[in-house]
Write a structure and sequence with these properties.
mainly alpha, Glutathione S-transferase Yfyf (Class Pi), Chain A, domain 2, four-stranded mixed sheet, 10 helices, 4 strands
Length: about 250
Protein backbone atom coordinates (compact mmCIF):
# COMPACT_ATOMS: atom_id res chain seq x y z
CA UNK A 1 0.00 0.00 0.00
CA UNK A 2 3.00 2.32 0.00
CA UNK A 3 2.87 5.16 -2.49
CA UNK A 4 4.40 8.56 -3.09
CA UNK A 5 0.87 9.90 -3.33
CA UNK A 6 -1.60 9.97 -0.47
CA UNK A 7 -4.36 7.41 -0.87
CA UNK A 8 -7.95 8.41 -0.14
CA UNK A 9 -10.15 5.49 0.89
CA UNK A 10 -13.85 6.01 0.23
CA UNK A 11 -17.29 4.55 -0.21
CA UNK A 12 -18.60 5.82 -3.52
CA UNK A 13 -21.98 6.61 -1.96
CA UNK A 14 -20.72 8.47 1.13
CA UNK A 15 -21.41 12.20 1.33
CA UNK A 16 -18.57 12.61 3.85
CA UNK A 17 -16.21 10.99 1.34
CA UNK A 18 -17.43 13.34 -1.36
CA UNK A 19 -16.59 16.28 0.91
CA UNK A 20 -12.98 15.14 1.34
CA UNK A 21 -12.61 14.26 -2.33
CA UNK A 22 -13.99 17.62 -3.48
CA UNK A 23 -11.60 19.57 -1.24
CA UNK A 24 -8.58 17.60 -2.50
CA UNK A 25 -9.66 18.16 -6.11
CA UNK A 26 -10.33 21.87 -5.63
CA UNK A 27 -7.04 22.47 -3.84
CA UNK A 28 -5.08 20.63 -6.52
CA UNK A 29 -3.68 17.94 -4.24
CA UNK A 30 -2.49 14.90 -6.17
CA UNK A 31 -3.80 11.70 -4.64
CA UNK A 32 -4.92 8.18 -5.43
CA UNK A 33 -8.58 7.32 -4.99
CA UNK A 34 -9.41 3.88 -3.67
CA UNK A 35 -12.98 2.67 -3.42
CA UNK A 36 -13.42 0.06 -0.72
CA UNK A 37 -16.15 -2.42 0.10
CA UNK A 38 -18.18 -2.37 3.32
CA UNK A 39 -16.37 -4.59 5.81
CA UNK A 40 -13.11 -4.34 3.89
CA UNK A 41 -12.82 -0.73 5.04
CA UNK A 42 -12.46 -1.89 8.65
CA UNK A 43 -9.68 -4.32 7.81
CA UNK A 44 -7.75 -1.67 5.85
CA UNK A 45 -8.20 0.93 8.57
CA UNK A 46 -6.81 -1.47 11.17
CA UNK A 47 -3.86 -2.41 8.95
CA UNK A 48 -3.04 1.26 8.36
CA UNK A 49 -3.27 2.06 12.07
CA UNK A 50 -6.29 4.35 11.77
CA UNK A 51 -7.93 5.09 15.14
CA UNK A 52 -11.42 4.31 13.78
CA UNK A 53 -12.82 2.21 10.96
CA UNK A 54 -14.99 4.87 9.29
CA UNK A 55 -14.24 6.31 5.86
CA UNK A 56 -12.92 8.61 4.57
CA UNK A 57 -9.34 8.18 5.64
CA UNK A 58 -6.19 9.34 3.92
CA UNK A 59 -3.03 7.24 4.05
CA UNK A 60 0.26 9.16 3.96
CA UNK A 61 2.50 6.11 4.46
CA UNK A 62 3.75 7.27 7.86
CA UNK A 63 0.34 8.28 9.21
CA UNK A 64 -3.37 8.26 8.56
CA UNK A 65 -5.69 11.25 8.57
CA UNK A 66 -9.27 10.25 9.29
CA UNK A 67 -12.50 12.19 8.91
CA UNK A 68 -13.50 14.64 6.22
CA UNK A 69 -12.85 17.80 8.28
CA UNK A 70 -9.28 16.80 9.17
CA UNK A 71 -8.60 15.77 5.57
CA UNK A 72 -9.77 19.19 4.33
CA UNK A 73 -7.48 20.91 6.84
CA UNK A 74 -4.52 18.79 5.76
CA UNK A 75 -5.28 19.47 2.08
CA UNK A 76 -5.23 23.22 2.68
CA UNK A 77 -1.79 22.97 4.29
CA UNK A 78 -0.47 20.84 1.42
CA UNK A 79 -2.15 22.61 -1.49
CA UNK A 80 0.34 23.29 -4.32
CA UNK A 81 -2.04 25.91 -5.69
CA UNK A 82 -1.82 28.06 -2.58
CA UNK A 83 -5.61 28.22 -2.42
CA UNK A 84 -7.41 28.50 0.88
CA UNK A 85 -10.85 27.25 1.83
CA UNK A 86 -11.00 29.01 5.19
CA UNK A 87 -11.63 32.76 4.97
CA UNK A 88 -12.93 32.79 8.56
CA UNK A 89 -11.86 29.82 10.67
CA UNK A 90 -14.44 30.23 13.44
CA UNK A 91 -17.40 30.80 11.11
CA UNK A 92 -16.38 27.93 8.83
CA UNK A 93 -15.99 25.57 11.78
CA UNK A 94 -19.44 26.47 13.14
CA UNK A 95 -21.16 25.73 9.83
CA UNK A 96 -19.09 22.64 9.04
CA UNK A 97 -19.47 21.05 12.47
CA UNK A 98 -23.22 21.58 12.54
CA UNK A 99 -23.77 20.17 9.04
CA UNK A 100 -21.49 17.20 9.72
CA UNK A 101 -22.91 16.33 13.13
CA UNK A 102 -26.62 16.87 12.46
CA UNK A 103 -27.58 16.93 8.79
CA UNK A 104 -24.85 14.49 7.80
CA UNK A 105 -26.18 11.83 10.15
CA UNK A 106 -29.85 12.41 9.42
CA UNK A 107 -29.62 12.81 5.65
CA UNK A 108 -28.04 9.37 5.64
CA UNK A 109 -30.66 7.91 8.01
CA UNK A 110 -33.53 9.52 6.09
CA UNK A 111 -32.26 8.15 2.79
CA UNK A 112 -31.23 4.67 3.94
CA UNK A 113 -34.40 4.11 5.97
CA UNK A 114 -36.17 3.52 2.70
CA UNK A 115 -33.33 2.65 0.32
CA UNK A 116 -31.72 -0.08 2.45
CA UNK A 117 -34.85 -1.32 4.18
CA UNK A 118 -37.30 -1.43 1.26
CA UNK A 119 -35.25 -1.08 -1.95
CA UNK A 120 -31.85 -2.70 -1.28
CA UNK A 121 -31.44 -3.91 -4.88
CA UNK A 122 -31.57 -0.28 -6.04
CA UNK A 123 -28.71 0.81 -3.82
CA UNK A 124 -26.39 -2.19 -4.03
CA UNK A 125 -24.80 -1.14 -7.38
CA UNK A 126 -23.64 2.11 -5.78
CA UNK A 127 -21.82 0.23 -3.05
CA UNK A 128 -20.03 -1.86 -5.66
CA UNK A 129 -19.22 1.04 -7.98
CA UNK A 130 -15.59 1.09 -9.18
CA UNK A 131 -14.69 -1.99 -7.15
CA UNK A 132 -12.73 -4.88 -8.71
CA UNK A 133 -14.87 -7.74 -9.98
CA UNK A 134 -13.90 -10.00 -7.08
CA UNK A 135 -14.99 -7.36 -4.55
CA UNK A 136 -18.27 -6.83 -6.42
CA UNK A 137 -18.91 -10.54 -6.19
CA UNK A 138 -18.06 -10.50 -2.48
CA UNK A 139 -20.61 -7.73 -1.87
CA UNK A 140 -23.25 -9.52 -3.92
CA UNK A 141 -22.79 -12.77 -2.03
CA UNK A 142 -22.76 -11.10 1.37
CA UNK A 143 -25.30 -8.38 0.63
CA UNK A 144 -28.03 -9.75 2.90
CA UNK A 145 -25.69 -9.82 5.90
CA UNK A 146 -24.12 -6.44 5.07
CA UNK A 147 -27.55 -4.88 4.73
CA UNK A 148 -28.72 -6.22 8.11
CA UNK A 149 -25.59 -4.91 9.84
CA UNK A 150 -26.04 -1.45 8.30
CA UNK A 151 -29.72 -1.33 9.24
CA UNK A 152 -28.85 -2.16 12.83
CA UNK A 153 -25.86 0.16 13.18
CA UNK A 154 -27.59 3.16 11.59
CA UNK A 155 -30.91 2.50 13.37
CA UNK A 156 -32.98 2.44 10.18
CA UNK A 157 -36.70 1.96 9.69
CA UNK A 158 -39.91 3.75 8.77
CA UNK A 159 -40.23 5.53 12.13
CA UNK A 160 -36.55 6.46 12.18
CA UNK A 161 -36.77 7.79 8.63
CA UNK A 162 -39.64 10.09 9.61
CA UNK A 163 -37.71 11.30 12.65
CA UNK A 164 -34.69 12.11 10.50
CA UNK A 165 -36.85 13.78 7.85
CA UNK A 166 -38.07 16.29 10.46
CA UNK A 167 -34.50 16.99 11.60
CA UNK A 168 -33.28 17.40 8.00
CA UNK A 169 -36.15 19.81 7.34
CA UNK A 170 -35.05 21.89 10.33
CA UNK A 171 -31.48 21.98 9.03
CA UNK A 172 -32.67 23.01 5.58
CA UNK A 173 -34.59 25.84 7.22
CA UNK A 174 -31.33 26.94 8.86
CA UNK A 175 -29.53 26.96 5.50
CA UNK A 176 -32.48 28.74 3.86
CA UNK A 177 -32.23 31.44 6.55
CA UNK A 178 -28.50 31.88 5.95
CA UNK A 179 -29.19 32.36 2.24
CA UNK A 180 -32.11 34.75 2.79
CA UNK A 181 -29.85 37.82 2.54
CA UNK A 182 -28.94 36.89 -1.04
CA UNK A 183 -25.42 35.66 -0.34
CA UNK A 184 -23.75 33.34 -2.85
CA UNK A 185 -21.44 31.73 -0.29
CA UNK A 186 -22.07 30.81 3.32
CA UNK A 187 -18.98 32.38 4.91
CA UNK A 188 -16.94 35.46 4.08
CA UNK A 189 -18.24 36.17 0.58
CA UNK A 190 -16.07 33.52 -1.07
CA UNK A 191 -16.08 29.79 -1.74
CA UNK A 192 -15.02 27.95 1.40
CA UNK A 193 -14.93 24.63 3.17
CA UNK A 194 -18.31 25.55 4.66
CA UNK A 195 -19.79 25.52 1.15
CA UNK A 196 -18.14 22.21 0.31
CA UNK A 197 -19.41 20.69 3.56
CA UNK A 198 -23.02 21.80 3.17
CA UNK A 199 -23.26 21.05 -0.55
CA UNK A 200 -21.68 17.60 -0.13
CA UNK A 201 -23.85 16.60 2.81
CA UNK A 202 -27.05 17.66 1.03
CA UNK A 203 -26.02 16.18 -2.33
CA UNK A 204 -27.71 12.78 -1.80
CA UNK A 205 -31.03 14.62 -1.67
CA UNK A 206 -30.37 17.19 -4.41
CA UNK A 207 -28.44 14.85 -6.79
CA UNK A 208 -26.55 17.63 -8.66
CA UNK A 209 -25.50 16.80 -12.21
CA UNK A 210 -21.80 17.41 -11.48
CA UNK A 211 -21.58 14.91 -8.63
CA UNK A 212 -19.29 11.98 -9.56
CA UNK A 213 -21.79 9.41 -8.21
CA UNK A 214 -25.14 10.94 -7.29
CA UNK A 215 -25.78 12.36 -10.75
CA UNK A 216 -27.00 8.85 -11.65
CA UNK A 217 -28.67 8.14 -8.33
CA UNK A 218 -32.35 7.21 -8.38
CA UNK A 219 -34.34 7.86 -5.24
CA UNK A 220 -36.75 5.23 -3.92
CA UNK A 221 -40.40 6.16 -4.63
CA UNK A 222 -41.53 7.49 -1.24
CA UNK A 223 -38.31 9.43 -0.76
CA UNK A 224 -38.63 10.90 -4.25
CA UNK A 225 -42.16 12.04 -3.46
CA UNK A 226 -41.04 13.74 -0.25
CA UNK A 227 -38.05 15.40 -1.91
CA UNK A 228 -40.24 16.81 -4.68
CA UNK A 229 -41.77 19.08 -2.02
CA UNK A 230 -38.32 20.52 -1.28
CA UNK A 231 -37.19 20.90 -4.86
CA UNK A 232 -37.63 24.69 -4.98
CA UNK A 233 -36.15 25.46 -1.58
CA UNK A 234 -33.33 28.04 -1.59
CA UNK A 235 -30.97 25.46 -0.09
CA UNK A 236 -31.62 22.95 -2.90
CA UNK A 237 -31.18 25.61 -5.59
CA UNK A 238 -27.99 26.78 -3.88
CA UNK A 239 -26.50 23.26 -3.80
CA UNK A 240 -27.13 22.87 -7.54
CA UNK A 241 -25.51 26.25 -8.18
CA UNK A 242 -22.44 25.52 -6.01
CA UNK A 243 -21.89 22.21 -7.78
CA UNK A 244 -22.30 23.83 -11.20
CA UNK A 245 -19.74 26.52 -10.41
CA UNK A 246 -17.18 24.67 -8.32
CA UNK A 247 -17.37 20.92 -8.92
Amino acid sequence: MTSNKPVLYVFAISHYCEKARWALDFLGVDYKLRHVAPGEHMEIAKKLGAPRSSVPYLSLNERVIQGSADIVTWAEDESPSGKSLTPDAEACEQVEKRIDDIAGVHVRRFYYSEALVDDPSMIRPIFTRDLPLTKKLMISLGWSKIRKIMISRMDLGARQGKESEVIVDDELCWIDELLADGRSYLVGGEFSRADIAVASILAPLVVPAEHPVYSRLQHPPRLAEELSKWEQRPSFKWVRDIYARHR
